[in-house]
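Figure 3 (text version): structure tokens given as input.
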């Protein structure tokens, strides 16, 4: 069951950008995240869609409270922990903007980059990826093991999926694209690397990557575990 405090997603001329943020147990970061997103996009007609998987810590309630201040926050509550990729897809279905953005809630992705990413879309790009692996990009606070896993995942995709070679950071969780890129496309992600699915199956011509520094998680737990590594390998295999 999904509950949404607003109407279902229909393209709206008054909303240019929909930012989808999947959440689970993110109360410690959600207030700062929303405040920074709103500051970054204050000159752009946009909506923020929080898709929460029944966080027991009150993440959804915090977001709903902040909507009284900003008025453009939509909260989708899902019963049970259903997973990050399905949360993002639920956000896509509800989104009303012509451009869709995706980012994490844990402050590892800098919200201040959203306006620059939208600028690239306005310049004519179909897909914009915040990248750790282009000049100027960086990863902070990750051990050698995590870095190796990330690099290995990227190399595997580039080896088996030729279309991904146009994107240096194809496992990024921070990206933006024109709505048309997924219209009529059946997205079937396994695990939580949904950008990979869009890069392989989506309808787009041009891609831009913007460097950013991936920050250490301040609170909560990482999504990465052996199950997710396995899911990623299954995902790549299916796409190939």
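Below: residues designed for each position.
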């Amino acid at each position: 069951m999904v509950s949404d405090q607003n109407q279902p997603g229909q393209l709206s001329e008054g909303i240019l950008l929909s930012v989808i943020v999947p959440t689970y147990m993110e109360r410690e970061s959600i207030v700062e995240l929303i405040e920074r997103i709103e500051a970054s996009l204050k000159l752009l007609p946009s909506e923020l869609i929080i898709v929460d998987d029944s966080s027991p810590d009150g993440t959804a309630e915090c977001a709903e409270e902040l909507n009284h201040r900003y008025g453009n926050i939509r909260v989708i509550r899902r019963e049970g922990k259903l997973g990050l990729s399905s949360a993002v897809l639920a956000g896509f279905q509800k989104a009303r903007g012509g451009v869709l953005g995706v980012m994490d809630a844990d402050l590892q992705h800098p919200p201040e980059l959203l306006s620059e990413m939208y600028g690239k879309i306005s310049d004519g790009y179909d897909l914009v990826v915040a990248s750790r692996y282009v000049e100027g990009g960086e990863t902070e606070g990750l051990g050698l093991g995590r870095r190796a896993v990330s690099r290995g995942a990227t190399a595997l995709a580039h080896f088996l999926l030729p279309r991904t070679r146009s994107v240096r950071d194809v496992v990024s969780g921070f990206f933006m694209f024109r709505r048309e890129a997924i219209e009529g496309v059946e997205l079937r992600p396994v695990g939580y690397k949904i950008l990979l699915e869009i890069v392989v199956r989506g309808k787009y011509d041009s891609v831009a990557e913007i460097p950013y520094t991936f920050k250490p998680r301040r609170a909560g737990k990482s999504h990465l575990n052996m199950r997710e590594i396995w899911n990623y390998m299954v995902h790549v295999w299916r796409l190939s």
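The two ends are 33 Å apart (CA to CA).
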